[in-house]
């Protein structure tokens, strides 16, 4: 968790009279003690060198400012974006982080993340420490929201099953004399980052601790207490009653029973419509089924419910922000396991919309469970737009790598909204072809209406075209393949190694823009 930490302008001025950084920080802390570290920003000069941000000079006192500059003068520091130097002033740890030459929101995110990451080495054994390691950050590039996002995302570390833990890092904002707008922006950034961390936490959880039933329970405990949110958990008999044969064909191989989550957020009490629908793939562990995967890296398949995790995180943020719009989310949850009862390659199953599907590859299971979830959401709630998230194909990783998630849609307006949201959130999206005429022939079956795998060629595109077959007329549909951005093997951008929870912040930004436009 993160806290806002501000003080009145008069209190800040009185504290600065002492010209003691430690006394200033102690006087402005909401607790009895000062933070463990302070982060201030610096920009690059046209030539070599740096300049501390004006906010630093205004808030930490001239003596402390001079001491920081004096110590940095003996170090090579040009304030390149993300470059950090740690100095000690009046017994206080100060991390100076570079913002480069441009002060943008993304620069603030990256700088805040770099600062927090560089301070991790100072954390102590949690058993010996008194509380978390508190890091106070000035709003970098004067952007409290982006600073909160970068610092909180960088501070996240999954340690649930580690017995010897280090201190948790808790970012707080250091903004003496700040107005309510700065505080509100910081809290907005906190909500967005913590929602993405919710998705990351779910994706990092080992599959034996997050079966379909346990995922449903976790989602219910996270979301049900939030304002305007209701969560309904459907069992296997309900799934069968809806004739979701495609979904059940995947679930039948596992001893763990499937679940179907239906989540409603009603931010617009004057309407019973749900103009935005979200669907997330919830395969809590994927062995590939009878078409079993190689053992190398199969452990990563605990994250194959990344689409479901993104949807849970997005609803969390949407509800906490109180966005004035209605959103419905549906999540099919199952494992994909080989067994004597598992679906076999060549079997034919029937989806909720009546279409028959030849299962030529049981490792192409995500599209089978999504087919019924997409069709159910369209028929039941009739959203104007439906956005689906799934770790669907390895082909998207080959095509786009880690930086971009792939978006497949025939709607130009939906793509433009998503692309704009991704840019605003600093979470990149790239449009891929959703061309039924070009790719549908690859999923034509001799034994059924469709087959679930069209071969290696254009694998991501044929998967998207398959999903489009289950979208009802009149619904604008976007499939976002997040397989390539599911996990990173090392630090990249604002995120450290591990599961990413992308693109939670982008989809929340999209929903926020739609709510603000009042066009739905």
Automatic annotation (TrEMBL):
List GO BP terms, alphabetically.
proteolysis
GO CC aspect terms? cytoplasm
Peptidase M17 leucyl aminopeptidase N-terminal domain residues are: 64-160
| InterPro entries assigned to the protein according to its UniProt record, in alphabetical order | Leucine_aapep/pepB (IPR011356), Macro_dom-like (IPR043472), Peptidase_M17_C (IPR000819), Peptidase_M17_leu_NH2_pept (IPR023042), Peptidase_M17_N (IPR008283)
Q: Which Pfam families has this protein been placed in?
A: Peptidase_M17, Peptidase_M17_N
Q: Known catalysed reaction(s)?
A: Release of an N-terminal amino acid, Xaa-|-Yaa-, in which Xaa is preferably Leu, but may be other amino acids including Pro although not Arg or Lys, and Yaa may be Pro. Amino acid amides and methyl esters are also readily hydrolyzed, but rates on arylamides are exceedingly low; Release of N-terminal proline from a peptide
Under CDD domains, the record lists: Peptidase_M17
Tell me the keywords, alphabetical order.
Aminopeptidase, Hydrolase, Protease
Sorted alphabetically, which SUPFAM superfamilies does this protein's record hold? Macro domain-like (SSF52949), Zn-dependent exopeptidases (SSF53187)
Superkingdom, according to UniProt?
Answer: Eukaryota
Biased composition (Low complexity) is annotated at: 20-31
Q: Where is the Cytosol aminopeptidase domain?
A: 197-508
Record keywords: Hydrolase included?
A: yes
Stretches for region Disordered: 1-31
What GO MF terms are annotated?
manganese ion binding; metalloaminopeptidase activity
Biased composition, class Polar residues, residue ranges: 1-10
The family note in this entry says: Belongs to the peptidase M17 family.
Per its record, how is this protein called by name?
Cytosol aminopeptidase domain-containing protein
Where does this protein come from, organism-wise? Rhizoclosmatium globosum
